[in-house]
Write a structure and sequence with these properties.
This protein is mainly alpha-helical. It has helices at residues 3-39, 47-59, 69-89, 92-113, 117-136. It has one domain.
Length: 137
């Protein structure tokens, strides 16, 4: 098993999941933050409530690209490409590991860093695509 290819395709799968699913995650997290704020007694029409919700929503803002179906398609194609590139030199079951670890990395890292994952995922996708192709060929 070629570990460098496994690592680069896992990072590629991570960026694909970020691109595909961040828009939906941001909407869910904004709804969750709204419910939590309402339970804490904040109202969107007061100054304190507006400040509270502005701080919470800022972490989960999403760009217009990440809210489109094009992002979903591009992200899923990136995940499929990472699986195919990994299976060129590694066994088939390692491709399943690539997809699973990439998805869990997406869940963990996107909840930690929030909206900054959008820029990071695009940069990482370009870099890891080049690395994966280099190690696969």
């Amino acid at each position: 098993m070629e570990f460098t290819l496994l690592l680069s395709t896992t990072i590629l799968a991570f960026s694909g999941f970020c691109i595909a699913f961040y828009g939906a995650l941001s909407q869910v997290m904004i709804e969750t933050e709204t419910k939590i704020g309402m339970q804490k007694g904040f109202d969107q029409f007061t100054d304190d409530g507006a400040d509270y919700f502005a701080r919470k929503y800022k972490k989960w803002k999403a760009g217009s690209f990440f809210m489109t179906k094009g992002a979903l398609i591009l992200g899923l194609l990136t995940v499929i490409a990472s699986i195919i590139l990994n299976s060129l030199n590694n066994s088939w079951w390692s491709s399943i590991i690539v997809a699973i670890i990439g998805y869990f990395l997406y869940l963990i890292i996107s909840k930690i860093i929030g909206s900054r994952i959008q820029l990071i995922s695009i940069i990482i996708m370009i870099f890891s695509t080049c690395l994966s192709i280099y190690f696969a060929v």
